[in-house]
TrEMBL record:
Residue span, EAL domain: 24-275
Signal sequence, start to end: none
Residue span relative to the full protein: 503 to 791 of 791
Protein name: EAL domain-containing protein
Organism of origin: Novosphingobium ovatum
Amino acid sequence: RAKQGGRGRHCAFDEGLHVETRARREMEVALRQAIENGELELAFQPEVNAGNDRIICLEALLRWNTREHGQLSPGRFLSLAEESRLILPIGEWVLEEACRLAAQWPANLRVAVNISGRQLLDPHFIDHVVKALSVSTLAPQRLVLEVRESAFQRDAGSVRAMLERVVALGCTVTLDDFGSGPSALTHLCELRYAGLKLDRGLIKGAAAGNPESVAMIRAAVALADNLEMTVTAKGVESETDLDVATGLGCGRIQGSCYGSPMRLSEVEQLFGRTEVLPQPGPDEAIVAV
Ligand code: C2E
Ligand code: MG
Ligand code: MG
């Protein structure tokens, strides 16, 4: 497209590119300051047991409250954070903040934190997890780390070794966005994943009657049953999505039909309406939705 309009157009394109690079650089400078400026915040989205409508876990989702552009979701700044390695201090902040908050929640309710491949290649990552747990006194069993298969693209051996150390601490690891990219069955058996979180696209596909999506969900559920993993359907928005997901055997649901990501104050309101089970089982949280 740059060449189409001859010389003038070409210059305009270069200038556009220049403006874009500058905007990116400015954003990086701002992101570098975001932690000290207290501009980072966590939103939380419930993951619900489809059998009894109880919240099992709250997933922490990063938000950046910028002065210039308002609140930004990770889609707007995560790749920049990863490329600039700012994801390391940011990820450390997320871990500490998530554990600090979760330690004040009803017991048995877990917190899930998304982890980038970059973080898992950092040899200090395990120290950050240990520190976040010990400072907060959160039981390791209540911390879930969500990783995506793309995290294994670079140096899969080191990534796996790091995740094994996390599992050895007592934390659980789930495989996020399953079915969104290339995946290897062998890979699934190499680590003791506690669960699979199915990519939103699979549920959407199945709800639209796409037979390949249905087949993939069935295969994932069968595999998970055999490996004693849980299966979470993500992006469940409508009654149809919900019927399709539960009908295909997904035991857990996450999506706007149960609750969109919410602010901490809303999470706490949820606890106000808490229904406490006398003796919650290992897989039963105590908050009813
Ligand atoms: P994810 O782990 O797949 O998280 C779910 C995303 O889907 C969230 O987007 C959530 O807002 C959105 N979502 C939830 N329910 C629905 C629904 O019913 N319909 C639709 N259309 N979307 C729904 P969000 O918060 O923008 O996060 C995007 C991604 O950024 C996350 O995807 C996760 O991979 C990454 N991320 C978020 N927080 C962190 C973090 O602290 N660290 C790292 N490394 N990555 C993070
Ligand atoms: Mg996730
Ligand atoms: Mg996703």
